[in-house]
C-alpha cells in the first residue's frame, strides 16, 4: 500500500490534494444548481470569459483571483443586459461574450514573451504550483460560497424549480439570479489554478450529473456531488502522479469515467442494469412469448423489450 | 348577496358595504412596446368565484399576476381591501401554472408542497414537524397524502396539479388567484378541484381562476370575466357563456362541442 502514501510525502502534492478536495466540494455543490437550472453552457462561458481578467491581473502584477472575479461579474451582467433587449437570445449573448472575452485574453497575453508557457498554465491549470497561501484563499472563498448556498438554499431551490412561484412568494428572482452568478463565478475562480480554464466546466457539471443519476433527493444529490468531486479529484491526482499525465486532464478524465460507469451500471437507472433488470422481471421476449397474445408478442419482438 | 356580506363583515365595513375585496382600475400592461392588457377595470367581491375566460395570449396570466401584486401595471392601480397593492400581499395567493415548474426536479411531493413556505423558514434547521404535518394535511385534502414521499417526476399531470394546489392551501390567503388549474388534468382531478373550490368558498375564500375551458368556467364560477387583451364581458355565468356573445368577443376562435357551455376558446 506504499503507493497510496508515497505522493503525500511531497509538500507540493499535499497542497495539490488539499486544493483538489476543496475544488471538488465547492464545484460539486455549486454544480448541482448549474445542472438543475440547465446553465452548463453559461458556466462554460463564464469560465472562458474570466480569462482576460486573469491576464490583465497577471500583466499588472495584481491578484489573479480578483481579476477573474471582476471579469466574471462583467460578463454575467453583460449577458443579462444584451439578452434583455429581446432580440438577441440568452445563449447567443453568452456565445458572443464568451468567445470575445477569450480572444481578448489571448490577444493581451500574446504580446508577452513568456506567452506559450503562461497560456498553458492558465488554460490547463498548474496544480503542482499551489502554495499554502493559495490553499488558504481557496478555503476562505469556498467557505463563503458554501455558507451562502446553505443560508439561501430554499430561495435558490424555489427560483430553480419555478420562477413564477418564487415571484409569488415574494422572492426577488433577479437578485437571486445575480447572487447565483457571483457564487458560480467564485466557484470557477477557485478551480482555475487546479484544473485550468478549459476544464473547469467538467468539475461543475460532471459530479452533479453523476449524483443526479444516483438519487431523487436534492439533499443527497448535493452531498454525493461534493463527495464524487473530491474523491475523483484525489484519484485523478494519483493517476497524474504515477502516469505523468497533466493533472487537470487526469482529474477530469476520472470524473467523466465515473459518470460513464454510473450511467451504465447505476442500480435501477443505469442503461445496462435497467435492461438486465427488465429482462429478469419480464423474462426473455422471444422465449417467453405468450401464444395467445400475438399483438403483444409482435410488439415485444419489434422493440426487443416490453413496451411498458 | 346577504350571505356573502355576513361572511365578510370586516371587509364590508372597510369598504363601506361595497363588498369589493380586490379592485383593479384602468389597468394596462405593456411588455416593452407590446401591449398585453389595456384598460381593465374589475371589482371582485369577497367570497366570489370568478373565472377569467379568454383564448391563449389574451392576457389572463398577466391580469392574475397584476392582481397578485407580482407585476406592476404600466398604468392603473390595484387595491386589496381598500389599500393599494405594491408587491405580493400575504392575503392574496397566486397559484402558478403547473407547466411553469420543472417536474424533473429531484424533490419529493412533500418537499414541493413545503416550497410554499420557503420564505421565513428556519435558515439552518430543516422544516419543523408542525410545518410538515400541515403540508401532509394539505396533501390529504387533495387525496395525495400517500404520494408524499415519492419523486415528483413520477406524477401524472392531474397529480402534479393537485400538488400545486396543496402547496397553495398551505399559505392560502383570503384570495386565491389560480392560473389554468383545470388545464391538462384528468376528470377525477377536475372533480377534486371543483369540490375544493366549493369548500374554500364556503369558508369565505375568494377564488379567481383563468381557464380556456368553458365547461370549467361554467361549473365552478358564479361570475365570468371575458378577456381578450381588454375586458370584453363581465357578468353571471348564464349571460356570459352564451354562444353569440362569445363569438362576438373572440371572433371565430370559439369551438363548441356538444351542448353550449362545453366548448373552449
Describe this structure in words.
The complex is a heterodimer of chains A (308) and B (265). With 308 residues, chain A is mainly alpha-helical. Chain A is built from 16 helices and no strands. Chain A has a single domain (2-266), classed as ABC transporter involved in vitamin B12 uptake, BtuC (Orthogonal Bundle), CATH 1.10.3470.10. The longest helix of chain A is centred in the first third of the chain and has 26 residues, at 11-36. Residues 287-308 of chain A have low confidence and may be disordered. Chain B has ten helices and ten strands. The chains are: A mainly alpha (308), B alpha/beta (265). Chains A and B meet through helix 9 and helix 10 of A and strand 6 of B.
Overview features:
heterodimer, A: 308 residues, mainly alpha, ABC transporter involved in vitamin B12 uptake, BtuC, disordered C terminus, B: alpha/beta, Rossmann fold, 6-stranded mixed β-sheet, 4-stranded antiparallel β-sheet, 10 strands, disordered N terminus
How is the topology of this model organized?
The complex is a heterodimer of chains A (308) and B (265).
Chain A lengths: L1 H4 L5 H26 L3 H10 L1 H10 L3 H21 L5 H21 L4 H10 L7 H20 L1 H9 L1 H6 L4 H23 L4 H15 L3 H26 L3 H19 L5 H12 L11 H10 L5
Chain B lengths: L1 H6 L1 H6 L5 E12 L2 E12 L3 E5 L6 H8 L7 E6 L2 E2 L7 E4 L13 H6 L14 H13 L15 H14 L4 E5 L7 H16 L3 E6 L2 H7 L2 E5 L3 E6 H4 L2 H8 L15
Parallel strand pairs in B: 3-8, 3-9, 6-7, 7-8
Antiparallel strand pairs in B: 1-2, 1-4, 4-5, 9-10
Provide a compact summary of the structure.
The complex is a heterodimer of chains A (308) and B (265). Chain A is an all-alpha fold and 308 residues long. Chain A is built from 16 helices and no strands.
Name the CATH homologous superfamily of chain B: P-loop containing nucleotide triphosphate hydrolases
Total DSSP helices of chain B: 10
Number of strands of chain A: 0
Could you state the order of secondary-structure elements of chain B as H and E?
HHEEEHEEEHHHEHEHEEHH
Overall structural domain count of chain A: 1
Task: Name the overall outline of chain B.
Answer: globular
Instruction: Write down the CATH class of chain A.
Output: Mainly Alpha
Name the chain pair whose interface involves the most residues.
A-B, 25 and 29 residues
**CATH architecture group name of chain A:** Orthogonal Bundle
Amino acid at each position: 500500500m506504499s503507493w497510496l502514501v508515497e505522493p503525500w510525502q511531497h509538500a507540493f502534492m499535499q497542497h495539490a490534494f488539499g486544493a483538489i478536495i476543496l475544488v471538488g466540494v465547492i464545484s460539486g455543490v455549486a454544480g448541482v444548481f448549474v445542472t438543475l437550472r440547465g446553465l452548463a453552457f453559461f458556466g462554460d462561458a463564464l469560465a472562458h470569459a474570466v480569462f482576460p481578467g486573469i491576464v490583465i491581473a497577471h500583466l499588472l502584477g495584481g491578484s489573479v483571483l480578483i481579476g477573474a472575479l471582476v471579469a466574471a461579474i462583467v460578463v454575467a451582467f453583460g449577458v443579462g443586459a444584451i439578452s434583455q433587449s429581446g432580440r438577441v437570445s440568452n445563449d447567443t449573448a453568452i456565445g458572443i461574450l464568451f468567445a470575445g472575452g477569450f480572444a481578448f485574453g489571448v490577444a493581451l497575453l500574446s504580446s508577452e514573451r513568456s506567452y506559450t508557457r503562461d497560456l498553458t498554465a492558465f488554460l490547463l491549470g498548474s496544480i503542482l504550483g499551489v502554495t499554502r497561501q493559495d490553499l488558504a484563499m481557496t478555503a476562505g472563498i469556498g467557505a463563503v460560497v458554501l455558507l451562502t448556498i446553505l443560508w439561501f438554499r430554499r430561495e435558490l431551490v424555489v427560483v430553480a424549480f419555478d420562477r413564477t412561484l418564487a415571484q409569488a412568494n415574494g422572492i426577488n428572482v433577479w437578485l437571486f439570479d445575480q447572487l447565483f452568478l457571483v457564487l458560480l463565478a467564485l466557484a470557477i475562480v477557485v478551480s482555475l489554478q487546479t484544473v485550468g480554464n478549459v476544464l473547469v466546466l467538467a468539475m461543475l457539471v460532471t459530479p452533479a450529473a453523476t449524483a443526479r443519476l444516483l438519487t431523487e433527493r436534492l439533499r443527497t444529490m448535493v452531498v454525493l456531488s461534493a463527495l464524487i468531486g473530491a474523491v475523483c479529484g484525489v484519484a485523478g491526482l494519483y493517476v497524474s502522479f504515477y502516469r505523468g499525465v497533466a493533472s487537470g486532464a487526469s482529474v477530469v478524465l476520472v470524473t467523466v469515467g465515473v459518470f460513464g460507469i454510473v450511467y451504465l451500471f447505476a442500480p435501477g437507472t443505469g442503461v445496462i442494469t435497467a435492461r438486465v433488470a427488465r429482462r429478469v422481471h419480464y423474462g426473455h421476449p422471444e422465449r417467453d412469448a405468450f401464444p395467445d397474445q400475438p399483438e403483444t408478442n409482435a410488439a415485444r419482438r419489434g422493440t426487443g423489450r416490453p413496451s411498458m | 348577496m346577504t350571505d356573502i356580506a355576513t361572511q365578510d363583515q370586516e371587509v364590508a365595513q372597510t369598504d363601506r358595504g361595497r363588498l369589493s375585496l380586490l379592485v383593479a382600475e384602468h389597468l394596462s400592461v405593456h411588455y416593452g412596446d407590446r401591449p398585453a392588457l389595456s384598460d381593465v377595470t374589475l371589482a371582485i367581491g369577497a367570497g366570489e368565484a370568478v373565472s377569467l375566460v379568454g383564448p391563449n395570449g389574451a392576457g389572463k396570466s398577466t391580469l392574475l399576476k397584476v392582481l397578485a401584486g407580482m407585476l406592476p401595471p404600466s398604468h392603473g392601480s390595484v387595491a386589496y381591501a381598500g389599500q393599494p397593492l405594491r408587491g405580493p400581499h400575504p392575503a392574496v395567493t397566486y397559484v402558478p401554472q403547473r407547466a411553469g415548474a420543472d417536474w424533473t426536479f429531484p424533490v419529493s411531493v412533500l418537499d414541493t408542497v413545503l416550497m410554499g413556505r420557503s420564505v421565513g423558514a428556519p435558515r439552518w434547521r430543516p422544516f419543523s414537524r408542525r410545518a410538515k404535518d400541515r403540508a401532509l394535511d394539505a396533501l390529504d385534502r387533495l387525496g395525495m397524502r400517500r404520494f408524499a414521499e415519492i419523486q415528483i417526476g413520477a406524477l401524472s399531470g392531474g397529480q402534479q396539479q393537485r400538488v400545486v394546489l396543496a402547496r397553495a392551501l398551505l399559505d392560502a390567503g383570503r384570495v386565491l388567484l389560480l392560473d389554468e388549474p383545470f388545464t391538462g388534468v384528468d376528470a377525477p382531478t377536475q372533480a377534486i378541484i371543483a369540490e375544493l373550490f366549493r369548500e374554500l368558498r364556503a369558508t369565505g375564500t375568494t377564488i379567481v381562476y383563468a381557464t380556456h375551458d368553458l365547461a370549467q368556467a361554467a361549473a365552478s364560477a358564479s361570475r365570468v370575466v371575458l378577456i381578450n387583451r381588454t375586458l370584453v364581458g363581465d357578468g353571471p355565468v348564464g349571460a356570459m357563456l352564451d354562444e353569440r356573445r362569445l363569438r362576438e368577443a373572440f371572433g371565430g376562435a370559439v369551438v363548441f362541442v356538444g351542448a353550449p357551455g362545453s366548448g373552449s376558446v
